[in-house]
């Protein structure tokens, strides 16, 4: 909650200076840290490359996101 609140405060404080703050709070991402828990990348645990490509598409439109469309559905 702190990071979300802090990011929103920064965004408000710096919006007149043309600085955009984009908070990414992803769900599971298929990395070496969780590869023993899962069989491989999936809809619920994308690869880091997939997550970044997805997030870059939303960077100018959304201030707070999970970065990946399926994770956004799970949060709502």
Description:
Belongs to the short-chain dehydrogenases/reductases (SDR) family. Keywords: Oxidoreductase. GO terms for molecular function: oxidoreductase activity. The protein is mainly α. The chain has a domain at 24-76. It contains 3 helices and 2 strands; from the N terminus they run αβαβα. A two-stranded parallel sheet has the order 1-2. The two termini are 16 Å apart.
Task: For this entry, give a set of tags.
single chain; 76 residues; mainly alpha; two-stranded parallel ribbon; 3 helices; NAD(P)-bd_dom_sf; oxidoreductase activity
Briefly note the structural class of the backbone: mainly alpha
| Helical residues, percent | 40-55%
> How are the strands ordered across the major sheet?
1-2
Shape label = elongated
What's the total number of strands? 2
Rg on CA atoms, Å: 14 Å
Number of helices: 3
Oligomer: single chain
Order of helix and strand elements from N to C terminus: HEHEH
The mean pLDDT is: 85
* Contiguous runs where pLDDT drops below 50 for at least 5 residues: none
What about the largest sheet? 2 strands, parallel
Strand content range = 5-15%
Family: Belongs to the short-chain dehydrogenases/reductases (SDR) family.
InterPro entries: NAD(P)-bd_dom_sf, VLCFA-Steroid_DH
GO molecular function: oxidoreductase activity
Keywords: Oxidoreductase
């Amino acid at each position: 909650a702190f990071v979300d609140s802090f990011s929103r405060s920064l965004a408000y404080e710096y919006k007149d200076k043309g600085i955009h703050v984009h908070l990414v709070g992803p769900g599971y991402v298929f990395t070496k840290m969780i590869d023993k828990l899962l069989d491989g990348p999936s809809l619920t645990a994308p690869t880091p490359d997939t997550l970044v490509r997805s997030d870059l598409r939303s960077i100018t439109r959304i201030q707070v996101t999970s970065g990946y469309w399926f994770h956004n559905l799970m949060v709502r």
